[in-house]
Amino acid sequence: MEGNIEALTGALALIGYGLGAVGPGIGIGIVAGNAITAMARQPEMAGTIRTTMFLGIALTEALALIGFVLFFIASAG
Amino acid sequence: MAELILATGECDVANEVICAPANVTDLFEFPTIFTIGGLDISRTEILMLFAAVVTVSILYFGLRQQQLVPTKFGAAVEGLVGFVRDGVGRDVIGPESTKFLPYLLSLFMFLLVANLFEITPLINFPVTSRMAIPVALSLITYWIFMFLGFARNNFRYLIDTVWPKTVPIGLRWLVGLIELVSVFFLRPLTLAVRLFANMVAGHLMLTLLLASGVVFVAAIPDIGLKGTVGIFWFALGIFMFLLEILVAVLQAYIFTLLSAIYIESSIHFEH
Known about the structure:
The structure holds 2 protein chains of 2 kinds.
Chain A (H helix, E strand, L loop, with lengths): L4 H37 L4 H31 L1
Helix pairs in contact in A: 1-2
Chain B lengths: L1 H6 L24 E5 L2 E4 H21 L8 H22 L3 H20 L15 H22 L2 H7 L6 H50 L1 H4 L5 H39 L4
Antiparallel strand pairs in B: 1-2
Helix pairs in contact in B: 2-3, 2-4, 3-4, 3-9, 4-9, 5-7, 5-9, 6-7, 7-9
């Protein structure tokens, strides 16, 4: 296993994706948590809040997914 | 089942914990079946055409007869159309949404069918996990909102994006730079990558878990108690299967919703 650059590249890509998933994970938690608070306070607005929540999750999630794609690019190249 | 066989190519059940293919692209690239004028037609292209045919036939047969009391299938299709018209078009774009409803509806229905191929038995392959379809669709959305932006606001669309008048002068160049990159480059990119990556991740997870489950359970006579790990993989795979139904529908909805929001931002550019 000594000097196995390919294995090292794969491992580094994996670590990179793990780090990239931290931020969006926190972000989605904040978005969903605040949406639940808002729905509990104003149940009559639940429909609008749900749409906005999905939108916020989608925008936050994009970063994690770009990391996911980059993981394959980095570990293949 | 083709995926299951591919994934289990050479799996050392005695030493591995989960069966993975030698190369990820094995799961997404199918051998060419025949060639028409330089175009290689494989299972993927046939499924893409099939998705389009299914989409058109659902809309055609669902809305063919306008009845006072629609059939169950007709009512379901009308529900979907109403959902896109009211939930996406009217709520986001406003009164002008009727012009964009044909595009939004075809987008939503096609993506719904294409995404749900992921969990359809015997197909088991989401065609949106090949980058061609998300890129093509997001470029169509990009052209629509770019065209609208320049047609409705002339070059103010570009100028006000990079030099926003409502922002304090000290920060204006920074906000303008971020807006320029975000509106003109990141919007189509993230729109395509979001759908693509979600579908790739879902397909990978389902294939690895379900295939590992089948292989390990089938190997119980050979490797004994260790093979029972397959039951766990298979149970997790079934759970992911149910989750993927949600993801497939949600991604079709989000792609349509974001397209509508981008179109709206070009129409009502002032605010």
